[in-house]
Design brief:
single chain; about 130 residues; mainly alpha; 7 helices; about 0% strand; disordered N terminus
Length: about 130
Amino acid sequence: MLGGALAVVGDPNFDVGFLKQEWVMVIQTNGITTLPEYLQVPRTGRGRTLTNEEADAILASPAGQHVQQMVTYSAVGTPEDVGEYIGAFAKHADADELMVVQQSPTTSARLRSVELLADSVAHASAV
């Protein structure tokens, strides 16, 4: 999957490790859900600056398309916004339960994310 991005970019400085790090350190960490957000987030400390053309090439690749598909349904925002979004998505999917994935980089951050999600959903249910 990530190999497709490498073929599109054609730059030997891009490797699978870099693309995986980009996913974890940039997209997940910053809660990126759109291409404009991805293009605007700073890459300090990454050791490699992406031009808009390089970012577009990565996102146009099969791996990039997969990344965009994975963030199609993302609940990001205030607790109220997240709770409302989860409720609306459950209705949209006609689901009585949802599987969620916390994309935080550390265990403690993932656990905090679960706590926040639980509070958001409880708040939305009470309204």
